[in-house]
Amino acid sequence: MAESLAFEFAPAIAVLPFVSFLVALLAGRYLPKKGAIAGMVATGGSLLLSAWTLFAVHTGHAYQQTLYTWVGGELVDFELTFGILLDPLSTLMLVIVSTIAFLVHMFSLGYMNDDGQTGLPRYYAELGLFTASMLGFVFADNLLMAFMFFELVGLCSYLLIGFWFREAGPPSAAKKAFLVTRFGDYFFLIGVVGVFATFGTSMFGGPGVDDSFVHVAEQALVGEASVNTFGFEPQTWFTILGLLVLGGVMGKSAQFPFHTWLPDAMEGPTPVSALIHAATMVAAGVYLVARMYGFYALSPTALAIIALVGGFTALFAATMAVVKREIKQVLAYSTISQYGYIMLALGGGGYVAGVFHLTTHAFFKALLFLGAGSVIIAMHHNENMWDMGGLKEKMPVTYYAFLSGSLALAGIVPFSGFWSKDEVLYETLVHGLGGSPILLAAYAMGLIAVFFTGFYTVRMVLLTFHGEPRSETAADPEPVRWNVKLPLAVLGVLAAVAGVINLVPVHAVVSAVPEILHDWLYHGPTGLNGEHYHELITNDAFAGYTSGELLGLGETGTLFASAGISLALAVAGSLLALVLYRGPDPAEHTDKLGALKPVLFNNYYQDEYQVWLAEGATVRVARLADRFDRGIIDGLVNFVSSLSLFSGDRLRRVQTGIVTNYAALLTLGLTLLLVAFGVMQGWFV
Amino acid sequence: MGSLAFARELRRATSCGLPPWGVVRMMLELLIALCLVGAFAVFVLPDEYAPKAAFGISLVPLVLSLYMYLTFDGVGNALLGGDIAFESQYQWLTLGSYDVSWFMGLDGISMPLVVLATLLTTLAILASWTPIDMRQSQFYGLMLFMEASLIGVFGALDFLIWFVFWEAVLVPMYFLIGIWGGARRKYAAIKFFVYTNIASIVMFVGFFGLVFGLGDSISSLALPEIAQALRAGELGSLGAFGPEQLALLAFLAMFVGFAVKVPVVPFHTWLPDAHVEAPTPASVMLAGVLLKMGTYALLRYNFTMLPTIARDLAVPIAALGVLSILYGAMLALAQSDLKRIVAYSSVSSMGYVTLGLVAYTMYGTGGATFQMVSHGLISGLLFACVGVIYNTTHTRMVGDMSGLAEKMPVTAGSFIVGAFAYMGLPLMAGFAAEFFVFVGSFDAHFAYSTVLTALAMFGIVIVAGYLLWSMQRTLFGPFRSETDYDVTTASLHDVAPLLVLLVCIIALGTFPYDLAFERVLDATEPILDTTVAAVGGGS
Amino acid sequence: MAVPVQYYLVFSTLVFCIGLFGVLTRRNALFFLMSVELMLNAANINLVAFSFYHGNLTGQVFSLFTMALAAAEVAIGIGIILVLYRNFADVDVTSATTLRW
Amino acid sequence: MIEPAWAATAPALVVAVTALVLFLVDSIDPESNRPALLSGVALVGSLAAMGVALVYLLTGVGESPVSLYGGQLVVDQMTLFFHVIFTSVTTVVVLGSHDYLDSHPYQAEYYILMLLAVTGMAMMAASGSLAVAFVALELASLPSYALVAFMKQNRGSVEAGLKYFLIGALSSAVFVFGISLVYAATGTLLLDGIADQLVEGTALPGVLGVGMLMLIGGFAYKTASAPFHFWAPEAYEGAPAPVSAFISSASKAAGFALAFRVLITAFPVASAGVQNALDWTVVAAVLAVVTMTLGNFAAATQENVKRMLAYSSIGHAGYVLIALASLTGTGDQSLVLGAGMIHLLVYGFMNTGAFLFVALAEYWDVGRTFEEYSGLGTQAPFVSVAMTVFMFSLAGLPIGAGFLSKYYLFAGAVNGGLWWLALVGAVNSALSLFYYSRVVKALWIDEPDEPHTIESYPAALYGAIVVAAVVTVGLLPGLFLFDGVAFDAAAVLFS
To answer: What is the predicted ipTM?
Structure first.
């Protein structure tokens, strides 16, 4: 009874923040905190409800209900509906999102209100809508609804990144973020349409859903169902569909080559960055892969590509983070890199690992951003780490929380990031060893990235908090209030301990220690649980992954070896940074990179070529089209009209005014007619 | 209870005590008469009373048409034997052996368009209060006259009546552009006038080819009769042309004729000039309603009457649609005049309609019709926004201003939301329409439908590109204006149209089926049943 | 029937062409009028000749009408030539060219 | 049927009698100048004639054709239909002339000539033989020459009269020579008789063919069609504007009335003789294309409004020629012919109105060019609205009945299988829209260099213009009064 009541209330999880959006939008300026309180109440309510549904799912079953038929009826080929799907995955994500949204709202009180910013009602309205969209996306029960909220998430991120619209930078960054993700969403949209055209439904599944497209696809592959595959082999077509949807994922989750928007998005207010990076926008991408994992698990090609993209992005972004000067830039690249890991996990067959890393990352990245926000408040919105230093003593709460998050990010045992990253690498490794060189390559890249991650994380911490203050503001930072410290404290604890939900290595030794997350995800509804995914992954008809072991170490041996290697690399990276940047007055070492330095500072020239594509090339083509349009097409129209007028002008000159000429022309005309018709009618024969 | 069922319920409830069918059926005539009488009244009013009088007068048809919408009880397609709502038919003329009658009525396709016309007219009149500062009574009189013609276009079910209204629309538009337009208004007005007039005649010739090809199998120019005869394969030969040839030629002639109005690339070049020069309220009407006449006619004539030809020619037509989408969007990208940008994006958006129509699927045809309404609202909104901006800044060039969001928050907000609606953001009308079209055309009957649809979807990326770019340049950044005018927040009657349109767009995007799509589908569904249609044979 | 009817046809055509030639070459309005008379008479020749050929009187009677109308035409013509002379001080038909193009 | 049979010619008779009455009035007191009396008599006469013609037409007096004087005169519905056109145009023109002539001398002669010309036209529409046709043609033409040259102090008027006369005389000669050749080939001048002769074919197809072509030349002259149109621009431009209105509307209609009757009755396309001699539908098609193209293209670049209207009048002759060209025997013949008749009816009003507006402009002395018309819309909104109606109706926009009639013609062309002719018409029509809207642009859109000063508003001229405008607009919904009649009247010719 209790759980069904929880499910009844579940839509309110998204509706509450939406209401706060409306309140802030319409009445925000009259409210004491300009809508912040409303937002906190709403997200707090969402958090409670989410927790309740989580509990309900835990004690009872998953739940699916169609709430609203967007398009349906007897005339319609297939219905388009909105509904909610509450299963272990979505409820977990709901809790994460609402937690972080709640904390971000609270933090915003300190970051925005206390700072005397203008436009706060707009800020809280957008924040509310952002949260609502993401929550709606998370519990969507079909791909179309997911797409719709996915787009709304994009809109809100556009609005929030461009919050400080009076400056030049934020609107530009907002535009870039929306455009790049829109480019990815283009493929996603084709995918959605393709899914409808193929299966006639886009339901993810869940209790009560007989024919989810995931399930139908599975049956089609084993020959138990037949669908229109547009002339392709079913598996090829499903791979294509999967990859199309993946386009949206890569755009939102900032995977190479769509990652360029994310560093620019730092132009937005820092709490927004925290929300975007930890729980909403960026997380939406990988969440979608997890959500329809049963579909991806059907296609080894799609999985391999996901893994490869993830591994490459992890490494690629990590190397760029190494040289950044601004604290938020480092964090931005670390986000890209970490989502690369999650992709790597999902592509490598580690569904649980992916979700695990998604969870831990949400906490420690939100923490890091809020910590950075705290630092930025203290530094009067100066983000350059080379102007900081020595903040450790001035702001201990921030420091320790930030340190907790950093160690998690670097993957140092026993912080949460270690456990999840380790599992990611392990899953990829074993499946790679099972006979997939692509996975091994992806694993290798992920592994190397661990080293860089350790390096840039520790570098960031050292430069920010240690040593002597390198500027006057750093020497006398602005104090922060409870509303900043409390979220940091909460998240600091979470970042440190969240790993307990899936202590795989410990479980391998002491089986009494539970793998909570593993069990949690494995107990989902039919077709939507980890167990089923595992079957799909290992079934030759689908992905066909097999597990291998490292040098005959056995399963447990491989597990520990993998953990050891990654931990060693993380420590190595951290130590290197410690060596280089320790001391009261650390030096820049970027010159040692030689020719690599400009390449890294310029982010491998990714921006340049993309800007060239978006502006240089496209605008040139557009201009060309414009010239063609005005010159040729419109020119033809105008030419016809001038020609008519010109010939009209010539024609009227025939009328010379001399009547004898008229008589002559008249006679000529008559004669011509006589001759012509004479010949035609044969009068002269 | 579906909304259609609700409407019928309401009709039953409200018609108690009202004079039954007779009067209620004359609703369309009442609308047109009101607009015409209002137009004449406004014409003779002094200039200073005209704006408010016109607004007041235009509210009456708006409210009436909303009432009609709510109590709409049509079933099926008006041309294909459905129950026609608000039907009236009186003998008027003869053309040789064919009867021409005053034949009006609505079905699920035309009903929403009538409401669109009345709504946008009212809002455009409201949006004219600020910018129109001379010869007001003439201006508002012409607006009302145009409204009457537009209602006539969507309501007429007899070819000649329809054609009268179809051409009558040109006249007020010519004056609106010519008198109250920008610097090159005379060029734009005459270009619009002549270009679309040629198209009408070409279309006329094509249509009469069909009429005479049908010969004795029809006895009037009533569109339902002609459509049903054509679909029953009654088309005979005319002169040297056999039935197939005749049908093909007629189809092409009508297609070209309507394509100019839509406009389909490469027949579009009148549109940017007309839009740029027209006063903003006229642009609202032009983009919002007048372009829909083209697609409405395409649907009613080409795609309803000659489905087999349409299906045979699906690939080139769809390719033209896709070309319009992409090429129009690329052109919009190259512009720096806000109105030109929106004008070209109209070309682009109307391409979706073409694509949807040719798909001959439930979602395709229905979505195309839905897109007509949705694009009417959205482009109307964007043009109105540009107008409000122009009212205060006196420039439309993207480079001439920036940071307007600070000075005019509501206008800027409406512009932003409108732009996102244009980009097809979910829960707004544009997304619903475009998604229906894509779903409908993705696995349509013709070759390459998948590829063409995928190409068409790329339009959503380009549209985002140029709209975001122009918003970034004009609305955001530090405030700056090249022109020496005091930029302040717009007055209520300026922003009220924007807000009304916003509400409509969001409502239509969130509840598409209940608000409109059900009615639309009810009327478009019979078109899809092409099994009976076979050209040739004759009788 | 001494003369074959075709000859009349040829003759009348000849007269017609002579008249036409006059119309095209003469600039004096009076000569123009006379040439037109010649053309009318060419028709009369036909009418009379074929009236005889067909054996009915229609043609002959009609030729009388033609002559009368020719006279009326001349009357109007002379009147117009008179005002032409008053306004342009000339009876050259090519002198009046204020209206053209 | 009507008893006595001659009563069927009542419209023509009323007009002729009115002319004689005017003679009488004028000869009683030749010196006094009483414009109101003269124009009043003329107006009453033409109104009466129009009334009679209308009543006859709508009660169907000509439904079974009345044949008079051994078939020399025929009164059928088509005759009556054209009588309505002539008399209504005359009524409007007479009304407008009252103010235009102002205190001009020789007003009685003016009205007399006009009424006599109308009598001639009425005869043309009723002629049952080529003899009557020629006499009627001359009766219509000779007064017209004088009318064009009426302003004898005005060089333009005189020059126009001269050109009109010279080309007219030449064309008459061609026409009558054509008659003689047709007579040569068939031995009769009666239209029915000719048709009977041609059923079996003819021994002299060449002679007949040349004769027919020359007859067509005569029609072309009267209707101002190529290549006999050269007089028209000058005559219309130089003549007093009401006379231009009269000639370009009524005279053109008369020419077509004659052409319809002669070609259809005497030379049925299907008969063997015509087939051998000359397929006149092809000639008509050629002439239609040349005429409308020439007229419209030359009109497009004019600076003088009146001359533009003159060329547009040529263009409209081209449109109506479509009706002749489409009588190919395929499709519904009466449809296209009826369309032509309807177009002439509507054209009578809209074109007359347009010329009368020019008359008003001349009266006000605002100038002749488009530029000089600019800003009139604010000075004289009423007539400017009327002029806008005329222009758009002439262009075929549904502001007036010109829309319906023009599209009826195009439909007729398609019906006759001549869709290409309709497309040529489309191009021309678009071009015509361009130059007609130049007038509208001048009236409403262009700013005048210096505002006009308009001192008086002549009531009769205003009245004439407004009547023409009201009828032009009113015929759009009210065409049902005439369309059935026109199609039936056309059908009679083919029965």
So the answer is: 0.91
